[in-house]
Design brief:
Blueprint lengths: L4 E5 L9 H10 L6 E5 L2 H11 L4 E5 L16 H7 L3 E4 L2 H6 L4 H13 L3 E6 L3 H5 L3 H12 L9 E5 L13 H18 L7 E5 L4 H8 L6 E4 L6 H12 L4
Helix pairs in contact: 1-2, 1-10, 5-7, 7-8, 9-10
This protein binds glyceraldehyde-3-phosphate.
InterPro entries: Aldolase_TIM, TIM_sf, TrioseP_Isoase_bac/euk, Triosephosphate_isomerase
GO molecular function: triose-phosphate isomerase activity
Keywords: Cytoplasm, Gluconeogenesis, Glycolysis, Isomerase
Amino acid sequence: MRRKLAAGNWKMNGTPASLDEVAALAAAQPAPACEVLICPPATLIAAMARLAGRGPVMVGGQDCHAAAQGAHTGDIAATMLRDAGASHVILGHSERRADHGEDDATVRAKTRAAHAAGLVAIVCVGETEADRDAGRTLAVVGAQLLGSLPEDATAADTVIAYEPVWAIGAGRTPTLAQIGEVHDFLRAELTARFADGAGFRLLYGGSVKPANAAEIFAVANVDGALVGGASLKAQDFGPIVAALSAAPS
Ligand SMILES: O=C[C@H](O)COP(=O)(O)O
């Protein structure tokens, strides 16, 4: 039985006033039947973790360095995220891969660091539109999965997010059949490689909104979502959490 996860990625958005959205979300969804996570900018993690307290909302980071400490100006260590109150960290998001040149080996090293710090790593994979048009989707996400996960990853410390790059912030999503095809493929790859591969949570990400959440969550092997824009406001993220709570298990 995989526990469903609604994860919000605020990306480079949010001010201290945005913490009101976490309070509003917790008030609207005080006892969701799924895990709820928000990954704000690093500047807000500690305050959000204090605010979230023992409520239903967990807090995560959006990236960490592969090293435990040292001369890495502007970076943040996994242990620093944990010390600030984070329980999870997003790694290998396509915006990190594109903006910062992160490759699979880098993501794998960061995933190891996250695990060493006791964080759950949410490892992102996803094809570009050119990949999909060329029929390379499964080859691309399969290679990313293989290269980004350490051999000792487990279902307890690692979550996979499938995010087609062309659907992120675009207002368009793959068809349900396309989502299902990739998630089934990822499940098969995980099951072939890891003893507990059937237990890894698989999130879909890319233009998840209140209007399309329920139909996406009904797709087999979709165990939740990694939500960008629609996670910023409780009035949008709340209904997504509710849809996931009500989704078939
Ligand atoms: O990490 C989240 C994804 O990039 C999805 O973003 P989006 O929901 O704004 O399309």
